[in-house]
Description:
About 40% of the residues lie in helices and about 5% in strands. The two termini are about 10 Å apart. Strands 1-2 form a two-stranded parallel ribbon. The chain contains seven helices and two strands. The protein is mainly alpha-helical.
Amino acid sequence: xxxxxxxxxxxxxxxxxxxxxVIDLRVFGGSALTSAxxxxxxxxxxxxxxxxxxxxVPARNxxxxxxxxxxxxxxxSEHIFIGVNAIDYSGYPDCRPEFIAAFEQxxxxxxxAGVQGTTRIRIETPLIEMTxxxxxxxxxxxxxxxxLTFSCYxxxxxxxxxxxxxxxxxxxxxxxxxxxxxxxxxLPSRSST
Length: 193
């Protein structure tokens, strides 16, 4: 569902190119998102923030950023954007500013462009210090069609959000605090879109 949402968003924004790299982290497991571990449901805000949850995928953002770093070096790009958030989030260690700064430093040590000084890679995190409500407001101000997005950790067979996992609860909190209605709540099932 996340890959399909990424394609929808890229199309709607007029992206000139959208590539998908096959990265199957189920080979390692270790998470409710990559193995048969149940996704937690109906947790309160304190429970969500209390510890790193079982939905944390080991080294996921490190892996994603590594792929992006390789692509940036090949294309001569200086900026890599990632939508991590360290305010309203589930406590994932690879969403923190310290991790991003360390990865950026490593990226500039690990690439030919960085060592030769021809390109300095910057990891851009425009959402990292925003609340979910701030993110909703900013997206709407930019004209982003949030009905194209997807957040759920445990969708049903038709691709509908469960409304009960940590990601759905944090999304709902963001829309409520922004005084907005989540367009996914009133949409027909994804199988018909």
